[in-house]
Amino acid sequence: MQADPDRDFIRIGDDFFIAFLYGEVADVTELHRNARAIWLELKSADVAVTRKMILDCGLVHQLEIPDPHLYFQAPGGQCLRLVGMDEDLSFYEGTGTGPDMEKIKAALEKQSLKLSFTAKIGADEALSKISSVQNWWGVGFEGSAEKQGDHFIIKMGPEAYFNCTVTELIPGKKLVWTVDECYMPWYTDKQEWTGTQMIFELYEHTDETKLDFTHKGLTPDVACYKDCKPGWTHWITRSLYAYFTTGKGDFEQR
Q1: Which residue has the higher pLDDT, 60 or 5?
Q2: Is the separation of the CB atoms in 188 and 209 below 8 Å?
Q3: CA-CA-CA-CA torsion for 141, 146, 149, 150, nearest 10 degrees?
Q4: Domains identified in the chain and CATH numbers
Q5: Is 73 helix (H, G, I), strand (E, B) or coil?
Q6: pLDDT tens digits for range 191-223
Q7: What's the start-to-end Cα distance of the chain, in Å?
Q8: How many CB atoms lie within 10 A of CB 44?
Q9: pLDDT at 243 over 60
């Protein structure tokens, strides 16, 4: 049966059902396409604590789904959803109105760009390579990004520039670049990146490290998002990944 434009259901008997939820999901890589897979449901008496444990383990990939629950992909590829033990799930069973999906979608428009990958590299080496900006990001680079407090300038073409500061550096864990000032001649608001932050979070497990990249402040409602998203997707998931694994960045943006 069709419930509304955001969901459909197939019910077999009283206790078995399949729910189809519709919404915008990034289709950047095969990993992200698994957001469209069938998921298992994980119930917890304390969702907040369980959520933190899941995300802090560094072994899962969080899926961006237009729904308030945590959806994640386990190392074997299976997708799961975290819900409360006694939570009212009637919305997903076709028997209730559930959350306001329009509000949820509006909230997603405010979510900053996030990208992730896992590579066979130690966290300390990974952070060192991220700081070697010119070896994986195809931009002009002046200054240093090796220590907290370092300043550097990113240049794109003859006019565009981004003055940045390393505002946080936790060895083997986290690196934050803050854009202090920028000039983006292609857009009406030429300061769109000013005040935004590029955040690199590292989670090492055995011989692998998971990188979570967030460009905080770069959201879908910003004019440059449609251009910056494919750009970051290449430089992070292809070029930086290649630099981690082969020692050479991928400068053929496509």
Answers
A1: 60
A2: no
A3: -30
A4: 2-108 (no CATH), 113-246 (3.30.530.20)
A5: strand
A6: 999 999 999 999 998 889 999 999 999 988 889
A7: 41
A8: 17
A9: yes
Asked if pLDDT for residue 104 goes beyond 80, the answer is: no
Beta strands 2-4 and 39-44 are unpaired
Cα–Cα dist 202/188, whole Å: 35
Region 38-45 average pLDDT: 84
Greatest mean pLDDT among 55-64, 96-105, 106-115, 170-179 lies in 170-179
The SS3 call for residue 77 is: coil
Residue 253 contacts residue 138 (beta carbons within 8 Å): yes
pLDDT at 29 over 60: no
Written as six digits, the tokens of 120 are 């066979």
Centroid of chain to Cα 73: 13
Q: Is the separation of the CB atoms in 217 and 112 below 8 Å? A: yes
3-state secondary structure of 220: coil
Model pTM above 0.70: no
What is the length of the chain?
254
How far apart (Å, rounded) are the C-alpha atoms in residues 15 and 150?
59
Please, what is the Cα angle at 120 between 114 and 121, to 5 degrees? 85
